[in-house]
Amino acid sequence: MSRHEPIALMLVTDRGLCGSRSVEDVVMQAIAGGVDCVQLREKQLDTRGFVERALRLKQTMRSTGVPLIINDRVDVALAAEADGVHLGQEDMPVPIARQLLGANSIIGLSVENWAQVERAQDLDVAYLGVSPIFKTLTKTDTKGAWGLGGLARIQSFSRHPLIGIGGLNQANIAEVVTAGAHGVAVVSAICSALDPMQAARELLQCIKTAKVPSLHSRNVAAITSSQVH
Ligand code: TZP
Ligand code: MG
User: Fold this and answer.
1) Which residue of 90, 103, 115, 151 sits 20 to 30 Å from the alpha carbon of 222, by its own alpha carbon?
2) Which residue has the higher pLDDT, 158 or 226?
3) CA distances to 114, 152, 158, 182 from 178, in Å
4) What is the mean pLDDT of residues 103-130?
5) Closest CA to 178 of 191, 199, 164, 165
6) Residue among 11, 89, 165 to mutate when testing ligand 1 (max atoms within 8 A of CB)
7) Cα angle 2-121-99, degrees, rounded to a multiple of 5
């Protein structure tokens, strides 16, 4: 996948939520269910441990064609020759990350407030992570939540594809897509699922179903306007 291909369903890993299963197993099941980007997120490991895990996961995923990106750490992404990084606002600045990783890397950036959305207009990123959409127990240091209204406001302003994250599951991702997310990222909806493959499959189905009516109405609008002219 190149950095320009849209991401529909990203799995963000959480070792603790995988329970007795390995992250590699959960990732491979999720990919079999349709996840099209994996973000390795490791908050407890030191640098050496993180690099080892990244190399192992990259090796496991090598035949899938699904990109692997690294949470927070450009150095780990470089060391593991990952496909990119997901950066927070306190991580390496995007222009420097872009210089280090090269033009073809996937660089995603979290936005947590409106000033960050505005600043991101000038940045060379593959997507904005709209974070969080809803409150979530998986990450508790978030500042407020965008909600569907906030997401829609970003969508009408930003030039970047948007990936919604935070509290997303089968019950609400359709409305997140309808509100303007081009894709969604989940942790617990897949890592905590008894059957990660089935969970991914069902999430993807919700996303696809939500996208079809909006494509349909755009086509109808295009047909109508071409008939007017
Ligand atoms: N960034 C913003 S919210 C979040 C991250 C990593 C956690 C999302 O976890 P969940 O379980 O999908 O709500
Ligand atoms: Mg981060």
Assistant:
1) 151
2) 158
3) 20, 9, 16, 9
4) 98
5) 164
6) 165
7) 50
For residues 158-172, one letter each, b for 16 or more C-beta atoms within 10 angstroms of the residue's C-beta and e for the rest, the string is bebbbbbbbbbbeeb
Given this model, what pLDDT does residue 225 score?
A: 52
Q: Of 209, 214, 1, 3, nearest to 97 (Cα)?
A: 3
CATH classification at residue 40: 3.20.20.70
Q: Beta-carbon neighbour count of residue 225 at 10 Å?
A: 9
What is the Cα–Cα distance from 222 to 17, expressed in whole angstroms?
45
Considering its fold, how many domains does the chain have in total? 1
> How remote is the CA of residue 12 from the centroid of ligand 1, in Å?
8
User: Which residue range forms the structural domain that includes residue 219?
Assistant: 9-228
Query: CA 39, CA 14: separation in Å to the nearest integer?
Result: 10
Does residue 194 form part of some domain? yes
Q: Is residue 1 part of a domain?
A: no
Residue 4 lies in a domain: no
Amino acid at residue number 144: G
Residues with CB under 5 A from ligand 2 (ion): 72, 88
- 63 labelled catalytic: no
pLDDT of 118 above 70: yes
Active-site position among 58, 139, 153, 208: 139
Tell me the torsion sign for CA atoms 216, 121, 94, 144. Answer: negative
- The answer as to whether 198 is a domain residue is yes
